[in-house]
Amino acid sequence: MPTVYRGTILHTKSFNEFESFEKGFLAVDNGKIIGVGSNYDQWLAKQKFDATTLKVVQLTDCQFLSPGFCDAHIHAPQYAQYGLGMNMPLLDWLNTYTFPLEAKFEDPEFATQVYKSVVEATLRCGTTLASYFATNNLESTLILAEEVARQGQRALIGKVCSNCNSPDYYVETTDEAVAGTEQFIAAVRKLNNPLVLPIVTPRFALSCSKELLAQLGNIAYRHDAHIQSHISENIQEIQVVKDIFKKSYAEAYDDAGLLTSKTIMAHAVHLEDSEMALLRARGTAVIHCPTSNTNLNSGICDVQRLVNNGLTVGLGTDVAGGNSVSILPCILRALEISKHLDFFKKQNIRGTGSANIPDEYYQQLTYKQAFYLATLGGAKALSLDHITGSFAVGKDFDALLVDVSVMEMPHRKLSVDELLEKFIYTGDDRNIIGVYVAGKRVKRATRCQPQ
Ligand code: GUN
Ligand code: FE
């Protein structure tokens, strides 16, 4: 039986195109969108089914339907160290907190407990699509894939690969990394769940030998698989990569065939112009992780510069570099950073330099553009925009039912733009009263807890 939602429907069609229907409708059947727009009666007249069989959900003036959020870069195991070591730079934080924690995922019971919680938490916060890093451990990475499938999230999951420059207790051989990746891809494909996909995951150039990077590039090519990694996050890290590979960070990946149109690279804080051009030529997307970039003192990423250079950009919490599993604070931090950058530029404090846009013409990121990054931008980065990220006939119904009335009683009716703005600036998971993936309601009971 089709369901039709009637009320405010909003989404984006591109970075600069926001679309909304104030008295709109969105009809869903078998998990797919079969109608969306403003003229419900005209749509209904063209349908063959008996209108009395439709289930109608009438939204209130304080509610709207939005596409689900995409967290295109999140480390599932690191949920267990959420909010710790936030004064450290990347490499110290990895050695002090992250590697000892990730090594514990050899224990399947521990892994099951953490992975169950992180998937519950991300769904509660409206993440309908996630790209997860797991750990080096194959068995527990499969536990994550099974947990994602059980809870009904759409996700890409990667067995992390690291064979060098890592602590003795958390490193694998090249053969283990290669065989583990092959086995993981086969096991995920065997789940035969269209929502769950494998993603080839070299941790970062620093922890993978040239040989391993090349073998992983080859695996991704043979299986037509997605690829994810980190790029140009931290100045010290970039220098070490240059010392080892004798070339730029992007070239190190490109030599291994790892830059493809199904590749996402997280951070990209300090990319050189030539690296941006290379990523663009390969169709590789970047994932902006503003909370993490601030927490781990990585730097200010000029997201407008990335967009202006033709790169597809999504948003990532980068938990636990990021201090929230929710994309909402990530949107806010992206907006805040863009404003700070504008202040610096206008105050003539240079050094963040955009090659093709003089500082005085810098445009602050708008909340609608940030909303795009958090929805369709992420889906596009992951080459899944034909399925999710916005509302169109034929796409899956991956959506949030948002209610802003629980924040306070508005003294007047809010416009559609104001509903979204208010949600972004003051909302949290309690305002997301329904989460749907491929038409199935997946949100557990709302709990009030800090994000
Ligand atoms: N670079 C390599 N590993 C990591 C990680 O776990 N988090 C972040 N933020 N950067 C990384
Ligand atoms: Fe990361």
Descriptive key words:
451 residues, alpha/beta, Urease, subunit C, domain 1, TIM Barrel, 9-stranded parallel sheet, 8-stranded mixed sheet, 14 helices, globular, disordered C terminus, binds fe (iii) ion, zinc, guanine deaminase activity, Guanine deaminase, metal-binding
CATH fold-level topology of the largest domain: TIM Barrel
Shape: globular
Structural class: alpha/beta
Q: Which value, in Å, is the CA radius of gyration?
A: 22 Å
- Ranges where pLDDT stays below 50 over 5 or more residues in a row are 447-451
Count every helix, treating DSSP H or I runs of 4 or more residues as helices: 14
Number of strands: 17
Domain count, please report it. 2
Distance between the termini: 36 Å
Output mean pLDDT. 94
CATH superfamily of the largest domain: Metal-dependent hydrolases
Largest sheet: 9 strands, parallel
Small-molecule binders? guanine, fe (iii) ion
Label the CATH architecture of the largest domain.
Alpha-Beta Barrel
Describe the structure.
- By secondary structure, this protein is an alpha/beta fold.
- It folds into 2 domains: 3-67 and 389-441, Urease, subunit C, domain 1; 69-382, TIM Barrel.
- It contains 14 helices and 17 strands.
- Strands 6, 7, 8, 9, 10, 11, 12, 13 and 14 form a 9-stranded parallel beta sheet that branches.
- Helix 6 links the parallel strand 10 (196-202) and strand 11 (226-231).
- Helix 5 (174-191) packs parallel to helix 6 (210-223) and helix 8 runs parallel beside helix 9 (273-282).
- The radius of gyration is 22 Å and the shape is globular.
- Residues 64-442 form the Amidohydrolase-related domain.
